[in-house]
Specification:
Blueprint: H1 15-27, H2 35-48, E1 52-56, H3 59-69, E2 77-81, H4 90-94, E3 98-102, H5 113-118, E4 124-130, H6 139-149, E5 153-156, E6 164-165, E7 168-169, E8 176-180, E9 193-197, H7 200-210, H8 235-246, H9 248-266, E10 272-274, E11 281-282, E12 289-292, H10 300-308, H11 334-338, E13 343-345, H12 354-371
Parallel strand pairs: 2-3, 2-4, 4-5, 5-8
Antiparallel strand pairs: 1-9, 6-7, 6-11, 8-9, 10-12, 12-13
Helix pairs in contact: 1-8, 2-8, 3-7, 10-12
The structure holds pyridoxal-5'-phosphate.
Pyridoxal-5'-phosphate binds next to helix 3.
C-alpha cells in the first residue's frame, strides 16, 4: 500500500488568508502599512483578554525584548525547564545571562515548581513557564513563588494558544507572555510572534525597544533614545494572522478533536500516557505526544522506525537542553532525561483524516502488542 506522507503539522490556509494577504500586498503600503498589524494585535488582545500586545517577527524576538525590558543582563540567572525548545534559552544567553535548567513533572512535562523554587539564588531575575505541547504549567504555584521572592514569572505560550488555566488563557497570567506563529504552530503567519502583557510600563519599554529605541512620544524624527531591536512583523504576515484569528476557534477545536481521538483510542493501553487535561484546565492540544512507561520497554528509536517506515512524520520529544554541547552541565534532571527516550510527538494537522489517525493508531498498537 502506498500512502502519501502524513506530516506532523501543516498550516490550514483558506481563501480568507489568501484574500487578506493579497489585499495587504496590493494596498497595504504608505499610510496603510500598519493596518493589518493593528487589527491583528487588537484581535489577539481580545482573544487573550490582555491589555497590551505587540506583534513581532518571532516568539524568540518577543522573549528577547521582554527580558531586556525587565533588565535581565550580564551574570543574571533565569530559571526554566530543562525540557524545551532552544528558542526560550537563546535570548537569555544573548542578554549575557545564564539559563538554569530544572527538571519537569513526569505527568505534564512542564517545569516542577518545587525545583524552580529550590533553584532561586540572589541572581535569579525571572522564571519562565513554558506550557509544553499545550500542557499547562502549575501557574498558581509558580505565581505564588514569584510573589514570595519578588521574581517575575514569564509565560512562553508559543505552544499554548487555546490552553486555559482556571478561566485564564495561557500567556495572560505572567509578567508577560510570548507566542509563536511559526508555520508549525496552531495559528500561523509563516514566521511571527506576539508579546503580550497587562503591565503598562513594561509595554511602553518593549514598544520603544521594538522600534529601534524610538519612544512613541518622541517628536524628533529619526531620534533613538536607546539601542533597541528590530523584531517587527510585516503587514502581509499580519494580514494572514487576521484571517487566522477569525478562524481561531475552529483551529483550536480541530487540534483538540485530534488529541481527543488519540486519547480515546489509547487510553486502554496500560502504561501509555498522552497530554493531560487536569480539572480546571483546557489543553490547546498543539502537539499530541505519547509517553510509554519505562517498564514497557518501547524506545524512541523503535517508535521512529515504525512510523517513518510507513511514511509518517515521527517527531522526537525535546532533548534536555542541558545535554546540548553549549550548555553541558552535569544535569540530574531525571524526567527531562528519560521521558524523551520513550516518547514521540504524533501528527496533528488541521486537514488530516480520521483514516490517517486510524493508521497511526494501528501502527502504535501493533508495536505495543510486541512488548506486552
Ligand atoms: C516555537 C517555539 C518558540 C520559538 O518561536 P519562534 O517564533 O520560532 O521564535 C519558542 N518557545 C517555544 C516553547 C516554542 O515551541
Amino acid at each position: 500500500m502506498t500512502k502519501t506522507r502524513i506530516y506532523y503539522t501543516k498550516p490550514s490556509i483558506t481563501e480568507l488568508e489568501v484574500e487578506y494577504a493579497n489585499d495587504a500586498a496590493c494596498n497595504g503600503w504608505g499610510d496603510r502599512c500598519y493596518e493589518y498589524i493593528n487589527l491583528f494585535e487588537e484581535a489577539f488582545k481580545a482573544h487573550l483578554d490582555v491589555q497590551y500586545a505587540i506583534a513581532t517577527s518571532s516568539c524568540t524576538g518577543a522573549l528577547h525584548m521582554g527580558m531586556a525590558a525587565l533588565g535581565i543582563g550580564e551574570d543574571d540567572e533565569v530559571i526554566m525547564a530543562d525540557t524545551n525548545w532552544i528558542a526560550t534559552a537563546a535570548p537569555i544567553v544573548h542578554l549575557g545571562a545564564k539559563p538554569v535548567f530544572v527538571d519537569i513533572l513526569p505527568d505534564s512535562w512542564c517545569i516542577d515548581p518545587d525545583l524552580a523554587e529550590a533553584a532561586i539564588t540572589p541572581r535569579t531575575k525571572a522564571i519562565i513557564a513554558v506550557h509544553l505541547y499545550g500542557n499547562l504549567c502549575e501557574m498558581d504555584r509558580l505565581l505564588a513563588i514569584g510573589k514570595k521572592y519578588g521574581i517575575p514569572i514569564i509565560e512562553d505560550a508559543a505552544e499554548a494558544i487555546g490552553s486555559v488555566y482556571q478561566g485564564k488563557r495561557a500567556g495572560s497570567m505572567g509578567k508577560f507572555g510570548s507566542f509563536s506563529f511559526h508555520g508549525t504552530k496552531t495559528l500561523t503567519t509563516g514566521e511571527g510572534g506576539m508579546f503580550v502583557t497587562n503591565d503598562a510600563d513594561l509595554y511602553e519599554t518593549v514598544l520603544t525597544l521594538s522600534n529601534h529605541g524610538r519612544a512613541r512620544g518622541q517628536t524628533k524624527q529619526f531620534w533613538a533614545d536607546m539601542v533597541g531591536f528590530k523584531y517587527k512583523m510585516s503587514n502581509i504576515q499580519a494580514a494572514i494572522g487576521c484571517a487566522q484569528m477569525e478562524r481561531i476557534d475552529e483551529l483550536i477545536n480541530r487540534k483538540r478533536e485530534i488529541l481527543k481521538y488519540y486519547r480515546e483510542n489509547l487510553q486502554f493501553l496500560k502504561g501509555v500516557s498522552i497530554n493531560p487535561e487536569p480539572e480546571g484546565t483546557i489543553n490547546g492540544a498543539w502537539m499530541p505526544t505519547i509517553v510509554f512507561d519505562k517498564e514497557i520497554g518501547i524506545t524512541r528509536e523503535e517508535l521512529q522506525t515504525s512510523l517513518q517506515s510507513k511514511n509518517i512524520d515521527a517527531r522526537v520529544f525535546f532533548h534536555p537542553l542541558s545535554s546540548l554541547p553549549m550548555f553541558q552541565t552535569q544535569s540530574q534532571n531525571k524526567w527531562a532525561q528519560n521521558v524523551p527516550e520513550r516518547s514521540i510527538n504524533l501528527p496533528s494537522y488541521h486537514d488530516m483524516l480520521i483514516s490517517d489517525q486510524d493508521f497511526i493508531l494501528y501502527i502504535l498498537k501493533n508495536l505495543y502488542k510486541k512488548f506486552v
